[in-house]
What does this fold into?
Amino acid sequence: MTHLIQTPNLPDADAVYADVLAAHEGQTLEESAALNARLILILANHIGEADVIREALEMAKKSVSADNRAK
It folds into this structure.
């Protein structure tokens, strides 16, 4: 079983982040949410390993919970 890579693994991550933000420019909240959902499903298909995707979901959920507690 492959595990989720949790260390930086993306060359020029800032540029990719800027690309993601640019993809959302001019969209409504609903369009932006739909774009995020489609992107997640496309990348999940690319990953192709349900256990890795579940690990990423848990990591994201914990991150959101921690962010909410910090507020």
Q: What stands out?
A: Helices lie at 13-24, 29-47, 50-70. The radius of gyration is 14 Å. The chain has a mean pLDDT of 95.
